[in-house]
Write a structure and sequence with these properties.
Length: 394
């Protein structure tokens, strides 16, 4: 049944009691329905704003500073034009991709996102169930443990790691991810300190009672001596002393592929290869750390050129359409990750919402391949993109 604005507002009104407690509105509704009218990722964003608490909405949708990079991440995709071929037999499409010895049915992963119980009562468990054939990357800051998540995913989840100042705890966390069956480790390298998030400051963001960080259980950050006491910009959960030597140390701890997430500078991508990283993720942290960074799709070509096929390059940020997935792969990405869109699906209808978001994007990607005359991932290169004569002469 299509959802009207009036029905959505009435539904939102019935959820106010739960919202007052800082709980996900959809979790307190009698029925978190999946509207038939939600046919694009943009539709889910609109519905999610009505169903999420104000705290959850500002936390998830907000970016750093004036949110210029947040806007650029999306707009940069809009400026890229496709170059189709016609009269190609597209009756069979092959969207499979191989990453670190495992075959994925399509090149779309779910990016790590913290505190998903802010959005839905089941949090990451609902995401894991809704992900289906998509690989989920589980955040260190998840509100459900990696062990519980790994037990319900169809594809083994990857684990995203914030290296802790307590290296012994970090080592134990890596071992937990291994024991849970995670086939890859994603190390976030662009967050030595928290970012400037004015939206969270204005709303006085705080985790409601009952939302915890089970992956960090047992971590003692009280009286952390590695941080300058007089400076407010530091946070005991992040390590401003993290360097390339720590990447080498992490590699010595595990046989899992280690990907570095948060690489924008091609020189850093080259260092990642030389340090033994198994892959890089071109990311500006969803534009949540520092404003006026370039859009990730703009940074991607320089990174892939520098890496030159030595390790896989993935990208996140701003992906809302199947054509965006095609453009990212045409510019050298091996796969893409989405973040906010599946969280919007989670907020709208739990596992069903996540599943619908993934399904929509996968279907749109397949349509984009067929309608540009490409039948396999291997056929996606810059020939699939339209370039003006001016761009060719640059």
């Amino acid at each position: 049944m299509a959802i009207t604005r009036r029905r959505a507002l009435l539904s939102a009104g019935s959820m106010l009691a739960g919202a007052a407690l800082g709980l996900p509105k959809a979790a307190n509704a009698q029925q978190a329905s999946l509207p038939a009218s939600a046919v694009s990722l943009g539709d889910f964003e609109l519905l999610a704003r009505e169903r999420m608490t104000a705290m959850a909405w500002e936390y998830i949708s907000g970016g750093a500073g004036d949110e210029l990079t947040l806007r650029w991440n999306r707009e940069a995709y809009d400026r890229i034009k496709l170059k189709p071929r016609v009269l190609v037999d597209v009756s069979k499409l092959d969207t499979r991709v191989n990453l670190f010895g495992r075959e994925l049915p399509f090149p779309i992963l779910l990016a790590p996102a913290a505190y998903q119980k802010l959005v839905h009562a089941d949090g990451e468990l609902a995401t894991a169930k809704g992900a289906g054939a998509a690989t989920m990357v589980v955040s260190t800051m998840a509100s459900v443990s990696i062990e519980e998540i790994a037990a319900v995913t169809r594809q083994p989840p990857w684990f995203q790691l914030y290296v802790q100042p307590d290296r012994g705890f970090t080592k134990a966390l890596v071992q937990r991810a291994e024991a849970a069956g995670c086939p890859a480790l994603v190390v976030t390298v662009d967050t030595p300190i928290p970012g400037l998030r004015n939206r969270e400051e204005r709303i006085k963001f705080a985790l409601p009672p009952g939302i915890e960080r089970p992956n960090l259980k047992g971590l003692n950050t009280a009286g952390s001596s590695h941080l300058p006491k007089e400076n407010e910009i530091y946070n005991a959960l992040f390590d401003p002393k993290l360097t390339w030597k720590d990447v080498e140390w992490l590699r010595s701890l595990t046989r899992l592929p280690v990907l570095l997430k948060g690489v924008l500078n091609p020189d850093d991508a080259d260092l990642a290869v030389k340090s033994g990283a198994s892959g890089v993720i071109v990311s500006n942290h969803g534009s949540r750390n520092i404003d006026t960074l370039p859009a990730t799709i703009e940074a991607l070509p320089e990174v892939t050129a520098k890496v030159a096929g030595r390790i896989p390059v993935l990208v996140d940020g701003g992906i809302r359409r199947g054509t965006d997935v095609l453009k990212a792969l045409a510019l050298g990405a091996k796969a893409v990750l989405i973040g906010r869109p599946y969280l919007y699906g989670l907020g709208v209808a739990g596992a069903d919402g996540v599943n619908r978001v993934v399904g929509i994007l996968r279907r749109e990607f397949e349509m984009a391949m067929a309608l540009t005359g490409r039948t396999s991932i291997a056929e996606l290169g810059e020939s699939a993109l339209w370039q003006s004569q001016q761009e060719k002469n640059r």
